[in-house]
Amino acid sequence: MIPVRPGPDQYLCQGGILIQLEELLQKQGWKRALLIHGDSSWRAARPYLPIRALERCDLLPSIDLCTDREVKRLSNFVDPATQDVIIGVGGGRVMDLAKAVANRRGLPILLIPTLPSTCAACTPLSVFYDDKGAFIRYDIHPQGQRLVLVEPDILLHAPVTSLRAGIGDTLAKWYEAKALSATLVEQPVSIRMGLQAASICRNILLTDGEGALSAIKTNTITPSFLRVIDCILMLGGTVGGFAERYGRVAAAHSVHNALTHVSAAKGWLHGDKVAYGILIQLALTDNWEEIDLLIPYYKALGLPASLSELGVDPGNKELLRLLARTALQKNESIHNMEQDFTEEDLLNALQRVEYHTTFQKEELPL
Question: Which segments constitute the Alcohol dehydrogenase iron-type/glycerol dehydrogenase GldA domain (predicted)?
Answer without folding.
Answer: 8-133
